[in-house]
Amino acid sequence: MSDKLKGLLDKLAVIERDISEEKGELTFFGLLKRWSPTESWNLVVSSTWSDRDEHPNAIKYIVDKYYAVCDDSERVLIARVAIVDTDDEELEDLLEAYDVEHGMVKIRKDRYFDEEFERGYIFTCKIRNTAASPPAREHAADQPG
Asked: Is the N or C terminus of the chain more exposed, i.e. has fewer CB atoms within 10 Å?
């Protein structure tokens, strides 16, 4: 593993925890390397909050998080941020295969989300129920809902 990749993984571990604390628990957060001669990685995220947000808003939030702490040499490793809906069938396969939260598990080649991946690192892969999402903002009794 290159020093550049190790640095990125260390920073993503911190970012994953920060995002969980700020936005709510993640169902999946992983860095997956596409089959490519270059270091081309997808940062794949799934959560109930990203299901509710527009995907471009969730992507911007995540990109802003890693741009704040990663240098240019680390940023260029991430070719794409992909938001996967929590009800995605291929995500269910990953959720059945792995159970990790705020850790880091290395995975070998496989096909997920209509792409072949050479390898990857999963920081969180956890089945969530609706109770795991942050509570909806409540209105006062005399205020319209």
From this structure: C
